[in-house]
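User: Predict the complex with manganese (II) ion.
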Amino acid sequence: MNNYLTERRARVAKAWNLTNEIVLCHGGELIPVPGGADQMFRFVPDTEYRYLADHDEPGCLVAFDPQSGWVEFRPPVLEAERVWEGRPPFDWSEAIRPMTEFDGWLAARQTRPVANLGARMPKISSDDALTAKVREALMQVRRPKDDVETARIRAAVDATVAGFRRASEYIKPGVTERQIQVELECEFFRHGGDRPGYNTIVGTGTNAAVLHFTPSKRVVGEDDLVLIDAGAEIEGYTADVTRTYFAKGKPEGFRGELYHAVLSAQKTAVEKCKPGKEFRELHLETAHDMAASLVGLNILTGDVDNLVERDAHALFFPHGLGHLVGLGVRDASGYLPGRKRSTRFGLAALRIDLPLDVGFVVTVEPGLYFIPALLTDKRRREQYRDAINWPRVDELLDIGGVRIEDNLLITPDGNENLTVAIPK
Ligand SMILES: [Mn+2]
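Assistant: Here is the predicted structure with manganese (II) ion placed in the model:
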């Protein structure tokens, strides 16, 4: 067992503080592609499991008994898997047992309450309240990154920096979104990336207003904005960066003003990230900055506080300011216990509601977009008749959008911007 895993598990066990209860954490199973042909979807282990076992083999589980400690159960490697996939044979030990022994292990503890983390184990009866309690405690341990995690995030960031550098040089009128994606991801791989950490987003022109746009054959036009949201993944850990580029290189005209509005709000928000800062407050403060800029751009009209209270800004900034990132693209995000997701349009998409703390890695990613699905909606036009300059909006529906996203490591004094090497 690696030292860092022993230490990690010890921190988790301490936080759980269990006496009699049992915790099972399953990593999940391979899922076949419908239609046969021996194809499987790429296996991504459940992040709770990955954190506790740190590998990406399917069909395994980690079990914890406060009286006897941790044990991992793995399916034996079959001859066919050695032949077809080259999986190495496995050395069993005290800490890693064949899956065939799991039923016996559980039967010896049959009267005790069970928490089921990771993938749901349908044949095991578990205690939902206990599961929620241990899940929350694990989440809190996972949020501050340990040294191994931080090193992997930094490596993922380095590969991501290389990809964005190449993309920014490559973008010009006439190239396609797909070609940009290929250049970017190729550099991720060349610099040690295992794969993109999530589906790369490249949106040019109006496609930049689709928040999660899949790169298409669309060609970059002369005046287009080009929005790229992507990150390289290394050993399970990913960066998550967004930059918005201009087809001709420099910010110009209204698109340039929009860009500088987002950049200014993003820089202000980054400066405020430090231990104790409530992320929900930061989101609302950024919304305030964005609303003020939209008033300056003659898109919103009225009192800025009032506009934010009415969520008028959210028609142009419809997502949350950020989330935790690292072990997957939404690493240990969520709300503190007792905090509920707001039904307000301007807050409902917030992915984290918690105070930042030392060791957290968080994204800060404000954006302003002209999204026809929101801005041509009759009911919203009526609701915000007095707050939005609709004739002006109608002229701007083909602009697309701007998002700028960095990844910050929260430090005792404030934060370290891990992705600062990518120019913006
Ligand atoms: Mn993000």
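The pocket of manganese (II) ion is lined by residues 240, 363, 365, 405 (CB under 6 Å).
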